[in-house]
Predict the structure.
Amino acid sequence: MTDWLDKPYYSLNAYFKHTYGQKCYKIAVDAGLTCPNRDGTLDTRGCIFCSGGSGNFAVNADIGSVKAQIRAGLSRFHKKAGERFVIYFQAYTNTYGPREYLREIFSAALSEPSVIGISIATRPDALGEEILELLHDLKQAYEAEGKFIWVELGLQTIHEKTAEYIRRGYDLSVYEEAVHNLASLDIPCITHVILGLPGESVEDMLATVAYLNGTERCPKPFGVKLQLLHVLKGTDLERDFLDGKFQVFTEDEYVDVVIQCIQHLDPDIVLHRVTGDGPKVLLTAPLWSGNKKRVLNHLHREMKVRGARQGDFVS
């Protein structure tokens, strides 16, 4: 089993240090794309929790092109921070655009000497044959330089009732097909899960995590992001929250649930995130999540007290 360094789970930092010998940083960029859940193809409202395609922490798109954003992002770091970076195409659906434009922006990132790879946030229903061919071409072109392509998929939940409520816009079978297609190209995927979605029990959340360990229908992903549900200003989720239709986790409740999820997750899966910090100017609830460092310290302290580790309950 891989040495997880200082944590009781397989963190992204441990993966980077074992693979590249140092800490590596993500630089999030905004490629100026939209989403089929916003442009009228599926809907115009977006997912119920979405305030900006998860791009709130991306480099300011007003800077200009993706290349200009990358340069601006790199300028924030000094040599002591490290010399290797991942460009994260974060905002909205980053395979939902003209093929040649996507080739241009992905190549611009992969061509940067200090960039070790790109991570592309997208939807499983935006990975058609042309896009998969493009990703395959880029993988072949850059893998000789030791550079990777990751694809991040927003699954959030395996439960169709919840998926309908959050307006995800695709069936579980679509996610499964996307994971199979990426696996056939040897392109790792990272699956996003939201913990605390309205109407879901702890058992429902654990079922989603257990599903990610791999089934006959769907192989396990390379990585997982466990994301606390944030209620952000201006979203339809906020309206439901303010109307009293659901409650959010307390910090103690979240720490307890995320520990259980980690214990039910295959120890070979890299945990890219175990919580999250929504932008404070947009955050309606839970306000305690604004102090990410404190939450992580709480989580690690409680896991130590319990003697809990990733994969404890995986047979």
